[in-house]
Design a protein that fits this description.
The protein has about 190 residues and is α/β, with parallel strands linked by helices. The protein has 5 helices and 7 strands; from the N terminus they run H-E-E-E-H-E-H-E-H-E-E-H. It has a 5-stranded mixed sheet with strand order 5-4-3-6-7, with helices on one face. A two-stranded antiparallel sheet has the order 1-2. About 10% of the residues have low confidence.
Length: about 190
């Protein structure tokens, strides 16, 4: 008994659908069991091994240089981000809410990675206005900050205590729950 070409194609497609469906079901079942473990944020620096936050220049929307030392009068949330970064976009609403909540007691330095050939301040301002974000934005025009902190992926957030020392850091997009746990390291 011969099987014609159309039936072979139908059987092949059906087998492929079953394999892909099985892989999707397996992935969903297993991914819930193996979530990334959250690090202990109780204080990443021991009292005798404090690391001073590197000081570097950031730039305002007009291109004026500002030393990050000027932000060290109170704790700092230093966030590295870009408008084209999907995970950065996902945490922006939470960071804006956190800024509104803590702006009197914590300096927020939202550092756009405007490396040479990167984002220009006009397009960043347009993005911020379209989304109603009110936090202050600065630019890492020469990647000086990214280099000083060893930033290799974004978003990345560094939490600096009132004494100017790095208290903790987080790579990736944060939820409100994660942010609140980290903010406690500098309050």
């Amino acid at each position: 008994m011969k099987i014609n070409g159309k039936i072979k194609i139908i059987i092949g497609v059906a087998a492929l659908v079953i394999i892909i469906g099985g892989a999707a079901v397996g992935y969903n079942a297993l991914s819930g069991r193996y979530e990334a473990e959250q690090p202990d944020v109780s204080q990443t620096q021991k009292e005798d091994k404090k690391i001073a936050a590197p000081v570097f220049n950031v730039y305002d929307v007009s291109g004026n240089a500002i030393s990050t030392e000027t932000f060290l009068d109170k704790p700092v949330v230093l966030n590295f981000w870009a408008t084209w970064c999907g995970p950065c976009q996902s945490e922006m609403p939470m960071l804006n809410s956190a800024y509104e909540k803590y702006k009197d007691s914590i300096n927020f330095v939202m550092l756009n990675l405007a490396e040479p050939g990167g984002e220009d301040p006009a397009s960043v301002s347009e993005y911020l206005n379209e989304n109603g974000y009110t936090f202050p934005v600065y630019y890492d025009s020469g990647a000086e900050g990214a280099y000083a902190y060893g930033i290799s992926s974004i978003p990345a957030t560094v939490f600096i205590d009132k004494d100017g020392n790095i208290a903790s850091a987080y790579r990736g997009a944060m939820s409100e729950e994660i942010f609140e746990r980290y903010i406690k390291t500098i309050m």
